[in-house]
Design a protein that fits this description.
Strand order of the largest sheet: 2-1-3-4-5
CATH superfamily of the largest domain: Carbonic anhydrase
Bound molecules: cobalt (II) ion
CATH architecture of the largest domain: 3-Layer(aba) Sandwich
Strand content: 15-25%
Order of helices and strands: HHEHEHEHHHHHEE
Radius of gyration: 19 Å
CATH topology of the largest domain: Beta-carbonic Anhydrase, Chain A
Largest sheet: 5 strands, mixed
Number of domains: 2
CATH class of the largest domain: Alpha Beta
Helix content: 40-55%
């Protein structure tokens, strides 16, 4: 499994040559324009490869990844990606995809001090745990408790998308995009759909902006 850095570059050369061999125009087409159908917000975990697990090719999916696939309303990186994907690329779908066995979720369920920046990031997951505390803490099995928090986290992150004026404006004027909450299974390679919001969905009115 372990590859040297040099090997990565050799692999790249081989890949480029094989692509050109099967289609001499491949990179010319790809370099000209990208019209992705969806935005993927996923976990940085090395075992979750968005394009491999969904069978998509370069140019088909706009991708943002961070630890535990969080949508934080002060994260300028994520919001810039969302703004560009929704308003310029006009993606039809935004997918938040978590995964069972997520290390970020598990870490947030402990009382361990992960030091400075990680503590800040994982705090957002602890808030979701608190919000759904009754349901989660009633599950006797530790692994199943974490799995349920993975699902609820994805649901809350989709709702966080719907709380942004970026999504609310797009829903009003473009009747798009649909928002999806998915969870990927590391053990079977299958994606489970756990939550969905279409452009006609209403969230708690305290989050709805007037005069968009
Ligand atoms: Co993860």
């Amino acid at each position: 499994m372990e590859q040297s850095i040099q090997q990565l570059l050799l692999n790249n050369k081989e890949w480029s040559e094989s692509k050109i061999k099967s289609d001499p125009e491949y990179f010319k087409h790809l370099a000209r324009i990208q019209t992705p159908f969806s935005l993927w917000i996923g976990c940085s975990d090395s075992r979750v490869h968005p394009d491999s697990i969904t069978g998509t090719e370069p140019g088909e999916m706009f991708i943002h990844r961070n630890i535990a696939n969080l949508v934080i309303n002060t994260d300028v990186n994520l919001l810039s990606v969302l703004d560009y994907a929704v308003n310029y690329l006009k993606v039809k779908h935004v997918i938040v995809c978590g995964h069972y066995g997520c290390g970020g979720i598990k870490a947030a369920m402990t009382n361990n001090d992960h030091k400075y920046v990680l503590n800040m990031w994982l705090r957002n997951i602890k808030d979701i745990h608190r919000l759904h505390r009754k349901e989660i803490d009633a599950i006797p099995d530790e692994e199943k408790r974490a799995d349920r928090l993975v699902e609820l986290n994805v649901q809350e992150q989709v709702m966080n998308l719907a709380k942004t004026s970026i999504i609310q404006r797009a829903w009003k004027y473009d009747n798009s995009p649909d928002l999806h909450g998915w969870v990927y299974g590391l053990k079977d390679g299958l994606i489970k759909s756990v939550f969905h919001m279409d452009p006609n969905t209403h969230i708690d009115p305290i989050y709805e902006f007037e005069g968009l």
